[in-house]
User: Fold these one by one.
Assistant:
Number 1:
Amino acid sequence: MTSNLAPRRIACGLVAILPIAIPLDMGASELAEAEQKGLDIAMEAREKKVGFENFTASQLMVLRNKQGRESRRALRVKVMEVEADGDRSLFVFDEPRDVQGTAFLIHAHKDKADDQWLYLPALKRVKRISSANRSGSFMGSEFAYEDMSPPEVERFTYRYLHDEPCGELTCTVVERFPVDEKSGYKRQLVWQDTEELRLWKVDYFDRKDAHLKTLTIDGYERYLDRYWQASTMTMVNHVTGKSTVLTWADYQFRTELAAMEFTQTGLRRAR
């Protein structure tokens, strides 16, 4: 069930589009403290999400080019929590006809690279997405394959920067650095509100440290009196001018999902 709390729209200011500099006079102890605080925030945010068991949802993906021309895709999402490891996620495309039946499976991991597979119905085969290819576009969207995986805490190092006003809220700003050398990103800036540690914004910087993309998140509702889920995720590519909007709906928690659905065999049978 959802809460009666109204979603809050966030505007984080122009600081989001510029690199945030670390003071040059920061000593080793201050740096260590900032790194520990950044890690603590990430750990606390994860703890708030533990115990949901599973959920299903529907999703509308809207792709826009620089001129504003749109294409739309409808899909279903299933997520299963796995104790002591990363979650399992399954995305199944229903529309349009040219992508119908395409399915994407993620086995997230805390201590190693995720496993990702894409089922292509036209070829009737499962394609494994290699680590080297995860910076590529997911189904033509502005989300990369690596963006689709849950950002497990252990896959980054962290540095707390500061708190700042975030619309009606106050947000922590944390810089995180991917551990995987094959990541398409050098670093990311993350805005989470201090109240519930909900994610509102992420700035992505490419391997040359240029500002590549911005993800903004909105429309949070609370389920099971604990778990916050967003209704809208917008990824803007600042280089190409393209964007992708993911609209989530029909969240259902603790449904009758089977582990078999989240296997390569289940991926082939996804309908």
Number 2:
Amino acid sequence: MKNKGLGRGLNAIFESEGAKFGDGAGKMEEIALSLITPNPKQPRTDFDEDALEELADSIRTLGLIQPITVRKEDDSRYIIISGERRWRASQKAGLETVPVFIREADDRTLHEMALVENIQRQDLNAMEIAISLHRLMEECDVTQDTVAARVGKKRSTVANYLRLLSLPPEVQVALKNDLISMGHAKAIAAMPEEARIPALKKVVRKGLSVRQTEELAKRLAEGEPQRETLADDELPDNYTRLIECCSRIFGDDIKIRKGRNGGGKLTIGFSSDKDIAYFLEKLEEK
């Protein structure tokens, strides 16, 4: 199964030190679960309890298939480099010992490994990835180029994520809550600062696609007035009532557009000749 996470993961760090998993730089052991402690600087703080229970059920049936990666401490205890979720689920499953891969790593490398491992999670949204990348740069004092190498992505991809952190809080919250996508956010980031909040409101209210949002950004870049480009196009009550009445016969694919100087267009969508026959039948009933 291919890794669908962001980049190559911890191997990128290990390779930078001249080592890969299983090449003799570390060793596999079975150790007591009670001797393992979480990394106090682990960037991940939330663990879904239902998902942990599901993993615990799997571990009870099949055992812990993927070892936990740890560093040995001076007091004969072990600190987790990656695999805290598996460690928590193993506790729930009632295991006394677990397989571990023991690595040597100083505090800086340990922290960097934890940050990269967090970025590799497949359930992160774009804002969480952006924050983790920024932390990796700031807390480990590395450049964008180094971060890109660590996670196995192009520098431009890393730059796009980091650019999200400069967006207004409202846009960041919308992205985090899946009201907009990374593509929407990227298009909004290309707009003038004063246009970003109005653009967000229009994208969410109108359900604009990424392509439509990019078109808005393009029109603004070409000098089109913001007031005209980002107008919310709220329809009068009688227009809305007309759409509601038509939708009872013609379905939901009804669009109405006001003209600038009065008048406008009413558009009825259909997918086949059967729809036309259905519309005629309903109209004749009236």
Number 3:
Amino acid sequence: MTKVFKTLDEQVCILQSKGLIINDEEETKDILLRENYFFISGYRLLFMESITNKMFLPGTTFEELYSMFQFDRRVRNILFKNLLIIENNIKSITAYNLSGKYGIREDEYLDPKNFVSDRKRKKQIDDLLRKMKRQIRVNGNQHQATLHYTKKYGYVPLWIAVKVLSFGIVSELYQILKVEDQENIARDFGVTRENLIVYLPILANFRNLCAHEDILYDHKAQRSIDDTKFHEELQIPKVNDEYIYGKNDLFAVIIILKQMLRKEDFFLLMSEIEYEIQILADRLKSISVEKVFDRMGFPMNYGEIVRL
């Protein structure tokens, strides 16, 4: 079925036809114009009677729907700035470890011999090194530090090159490092190499989602983290011997950040999220904030993770 353009008046009528209460049509139309009907309606499932009956729950207002949109945006911004901290940390620590061991010139730290010696992964290594060289070349032309090193020294050291490499690329780089290099980097974060192998792609996935302003609160990563002491100490419920929260959801990212951020950064992160949750809870009328928690993967006692 072909989609057709809908005017702001028609968009309001569609929402009203589904049972959404519009208290101020002009304000609603202004919000729909600025924020986009499609993105705001992406939160409608929380307020629907069921998956099959797509009418809004009785009493649901546009203000509630928009409050959920705003909550997700604010939490996304909070998470994003903390993911950027981790991104910078992993880039800096990786560059420090590899530069000290293999050298500072591109032909030294990008030598295929520096990586895992597995013939089955040769193509993966070659492809990744090719992508790294391309990002350094293309993105480096727009970065003052890389241009400086290229012009003055004829090469770009890794501690400069990582600035123009994406988090995804650095995450892939970690996967092909030798075990001893993975362990050295993981040790600086206080986690195991096995955990960091899983954590980095999840963090890169959520980082990109935040950067592109996609819906965050109910996003699920493709991979799940291993059970941690935090799952047990928070007494997260299980179904079929599997924890129902904190595996591949937003709370899983919180568990990862608990381990990888500095204590003061993590405390601030959780304080800011708690503040936004309180605002949302005050604005929700047709549903409870606990329903939002469930979709986020947050246990009711989520805040206790700060003191664990």
